[in-house]
Amino acid sequence: MEWEKFLETQEREFGKETIDRWLRSLQLQRFDAGNLYLEAKDSFQVLWFEEHIRHKLSQFRNRNQRPIKVHLSLAGGKQAKKPASSKKEQAKQPDHIYFEELDPSCTFEDFILFEENEIGYRVLDELCTKILAKQTSEFNPLYFYGPPGSGKTHLLQATAERLRRAGYNAIYVRAELFTDHVVRSIRIGEMSHFRKLYRNADILLVDDVQCFARKNATQEEFFHTFNTLHIAGKQIILAANVTPQSLAFIEPRLISRFEWGISLPLAAPEKKNLIKLIEKKAAFLNFPIASRISEFLAETFFTNPKSAVRALEALILRSHLHQNGKQQPKQPLQISVIKNLLSDLIDNEKTNSLSPERIVAAVAEYYTILPEDLCGKSQAREFVTARQVAMYLCRSLLKIPYMKIGEFFTRDHSTVMAAIKQVQKQVDLIQNDVAAACNAIQLKLL
Questions:
Q1: Cys-Cys link to 305, which of 101, 149, 238, 288 (CB 3.0-4.6 A)?
Q2: Distance CA 222, CA 241 (A)
Q3: Within a 10 A sphere around the Cβ of 143, how many other Cβ atoms?
């Protein structure tokens, strides 16, 4: 069967002994057209599966080329949480449309509160209470914006999970997957199925709406889907990395509708709160850690809380294997050992720590202006110079295509090219304010 074939392919990467120990020892509970149910003997086997295997299962397909969902539970009657689904959603979907599972850890109960995300949590928790009481919200749509790691996806999935458990048809979808549904439906002439599926939602939650940029057919369909649901009084919840007004290459009529309700900011946690998040997650995973370890993880993986949590999960698994490979009694983890166990993740963090957001923040600090002014529309000289320097650094340090830089700064690519060319000329001359700024900012970033 497909599962055994998959195991054989993984043997070439991990070796037969490793696969026998960590994968083949999983108990196959049942297997149907769209679901594979497996049982793990302990939490370490679950962690190994999640770190090394889960992301590879996208290649699983049934005869209709729809993904096969893999469900993993713990032995001994302790079931891992399974994503909730409403009765409506369990009805047969068109073969060309599929939805990703909700992350079972993304619930309101598992959400870690800190001041930067508390307002989002309170608003959505109250919204669920209203919907379950058959009341309508005065804010529709709800629009959340913030950087990666600020909790947007967790909150949207937690809302979908709670409402599905109550029997509501809550559709959670990433903007890229919505686009894929549009493209597939157009290609095979099944737009009627697509429209029926989305427009029958009780609640529609769309993540990463900035990914609708430049996708004209998708924006057209989403416009009509939005209108249909809004007129019917159905709740719409959206999330993006920027405010509605800052969305690049999105039709004005959509931006206008995104602003009909209320827009709420979310922020990534400060270091002290990231430490709390790591420690709470460690306690949840039954792996209490010393404060020096949580501080090390927070300092090392500061760019994205998700990276810090993934590093913690990897540490739990790898330290278990590391200790089991020794004959002497278990010793407290030392930072030097942790650095060795997580060396690949630490290297990746150093490589990926630079981002357009960090560059903008550094440039804004250098010129003593606000990041929103740097990214805004003002043509004041101090803002224009800082903006051009930021574009130049995004290109030179991150190797981002001109079009992507344009999307980030809400400018067309020809404007970006001209700005970068102008800064490059100044940098080549060496002795000038712009060259000095670029050098100073690069030193701080690197």
A1: 149
A2: 18
A3: 21
* Among 439, 325, 444, residue whose Cα is nearest residue 389: 439
From CA 346, how far away is CA 318, in angstroms rounded? 14
Residue 96 counted as domain residue? no
The number of distinct structural domains making up the chain is: 4
pLDDT digits (tens, 9 = 90+) for 5-35: 777 877 777 778 777 777 788 888 777 656 7
The number of beta carbons lying within 10 Å of the beta carbon of residue 78 is: 8
CA distance 404 to 406: 5
Task: Tell whether 241 and 313 lie within a shared domain.
Answer: no
- CB 409 within 8 Å of CB 386: no
Amino acid at 283: A
Residue 96 dihedral angles phi and psi, to the nearest 5° = -85, -5
**What six digits make up the tokens of 187?**
């290609």
Structure tokens of 91? 């009805």
Is 401 within a domain? Answer: yes
Peptide bond into 141 cis (omega under 30): yes
DSSP-assigned letters across all residues of 240-302: ESS-GGG-SS--HHHHHHHTSSEEEE--PPPHHHHHHHHHHHHHHTT----HHHHHHHHHHTT
142-176, pLDDT tens digit by residue? 999 987 778 899 999 999 999 999 999 999 999 99
Tell me which of 27-36, 70-79, 108-117, 118-127 is least confident.
70-79
- Domain range spanning residue 278? 271-352
Same-domain check for residues 304 and 432: no
What strands lie across the sheet with 69-74, from one edge to the other?
A: 27-31, 35-40, 69-74
Q: What is the CATH number of the domain that holds 398?
A: 1.10.1750.10
